[in-house]
Design brief:
It is a single chain. The protein is 30% helix and 26% strand. It is of the alpha+beta class. The chain has 2 domains: 90 residues, Roll (Pdz3 Domain), CATH 2.30.42; 209 residues, Alpha-Beta Complex (2-enoyl-CoA Hydratase, Chain A, domain 1). Strands 4, 5, 6, 7, 8 and 9 form a 6-stranded antiparallel β-sheet that branches. It is globular, with a radius of gyration of 23 Å. The protein starts with a helix and ends with a helix. GO terms for molecular function: endopeptidase activity; serine-type peptidase activity. This is Peptidase S41.
Length: 426
């Protein structure tokens, strides 16, 4: 593998791996027993798949070293790719674990954001999270994790290293750490705790003699609705004169969470309509009692970009179509597929699109996105190094477990445009 491709695979783990847009409803039954149509397809697949496995087991020259779990994962992944649908996925057991953390917003672990450094062939720490065992132990950005409980991270890779560091609260894990200023690595033993990530971060901004509210929503997890209530309860007592909801790079999440949060900003009406695989249709209205009345007296801005997807687009579409908010930024991702998850015996799961959604005006945004009312792009930043952790990256990771957003108005043209819009500036 080329060095360039290896660098592209340096994916950051914060509390999940997925930057692709996703949204799904409640998991439905996997049962296919007694379905004659399904049996036809099973018969079609049985012979070639079993024959291929037979040839591998009996004729492959390296048959004694075959990883059959990997073959199963690859086979299922290939089936999903065969659908030629960008939103039909297979997640193996490790990826499923990461996905569940995204959804739950909490896990047992030590509180580290990590990525893999392919040049050093080891896991590198982006930052410990605030208030976690890793922070209290003095771990720092750019520290290397050489092994987890004695197993080298060069053998484990990123996903398995992250998985080994997680576990039951109260249990121990030993990390072999190397820092540039040390003459030799040190073993540091940490006791796992419950790590709770925050999907909603909020603050007030004083700008041109006005006090404005700012809410960053990173994804739509199980905890997001309650966190949004806490943010709005706080800001409702701050006498703010405008509100910015930042959905940039928000990949989506739970449909129910999207409906609950949209209902806080939209007093009545339709949130989204859905057409299911069997042709049935459903219109989902706002949830009575969720609306925050103080919002009707202040202007609201939504910040979006091409990373705003799925559930983010449900919120954006509902507020835009109902003239509740002004949308600023870039055209959104364009994902109107509702996925359902189906668990498999591998420990993994398939994510299968089962429905298509439409905004309240009936717009089909799939693969097209939502165009902002005011279009503005942030200048692209030059990536100086894929190895060295930047101060901004480390700071963002540090505040993963807190309600505090990290803002840089001078370098964030989209945010500055939103602030100028709310204050009547040019």
């Amino acid at each position: 593998m080329s060095k360039k491709k290896k660098k592209l695979l340096s994916v950051i783990i914060i509390f999940g791996l997925f930057i692709t847009s996703w949204i799904f409803a409640d998991t439905v039954s996997n049962s296919y027993q007694g379905n004659s149509v399904t049996q036809i397809y099973l018969d079609k697949f049985e012979e070639p798949i079993y024959s291929t496995l037979y040839y591998i087991v009996n004729y492959y020259y390296d048959k004694d070293n075959v990883d059959y779990d990997k073959i199963v994962d690859s086979t299922i992944e290939g089936m999903m790719r065969g659908l030629d649908d960008p939103f039909a996925w297979y997640l193996d057991s490790a990826q499923t674990e990461e996905s569940n953390i995204d959804i739950e917003g909490r896990y047992g672990g030590v509180g580290l954001t990590i990525r893999y450094d392919y040049e050093m062939d080891a896991v590198i720490i982006v930052s410990p999270m605030n208030g976690t065992p890793a922070q209290r132990a003095g771990l720092m950005p750019n520290d290397y994790i050489l092994s987890v409980d004695g197993t080298p991270t060069s053998e484990l890779g990123l996903n398995k290293s992250a998985s080994l560091m997680r576990g039951e609260p109260g249990t121990e894990v030993t990390l072999e750490i190397y820092r540039d200023t040390w003459t030799e690595p040190k073993n540091i033993t940490l006791i796992r705790e419950i790590i709770e990530t925050k999907t909603v971060k909020f603050d007030t901004i004083e700008y041109k003699n006005k006090k404005l509210g700012y809410i960053l929503l990173t994804n739509f997890a199980k905890t997001s609705s309650q966190e949004m209530k806490e943010a709005l309860n706080n800001l409702s007592n701050q006498n703010i004169e405008g509100l910015i909801i930042d959905l940039r790079n928000n990949p989506g999440g739970l449909l129910q969470s999207a409906v609950e949060i949209t209902s806080m900003f939209l007093k009545s009406g339709e949130v989204v309509s859905i057409k299911y695989f069997d042709g049935t249709k459903e219109t989902i209205p706002t949830i009575p009692g969720n609306y925050y009345s103080f919002l009707q007296n202040i202007p609201v801005v939504l910040l979006v970009n091409e990373g705003s997807a799925s559930a983010s687009e449900i919120l954006t579409g509902a507020l835009k179509d109902n003239s509740v908010a002004t949308v600023i930024g870039e055209t959104t991702y364009g994902k109107a597929a509702v996925q359902n998850t189906f668990s498999l015996s591998t420990g993994g799961e398939i994510w299968l699109p089962i429905a298509h959604y439409f905004t309240p005006s009936g717009s089909d945004i799939h693969l097209k996105g939502i165009k902002p009312d005011i279009e503005v792009s942030n200048p692209e930043r030059e990536v100086i190094s894929m190895t060295e952790i930047s101060e901004e990256e480390a700071t963002q990771a540090f505040y993963t477990t807190t309600e505090k957003p990290v803002l840089n108005i001078e370098e964030d043209l989209q945010l500055k445009t939103a602030l100028d819009f709310l204050t009547g500036g040019n």
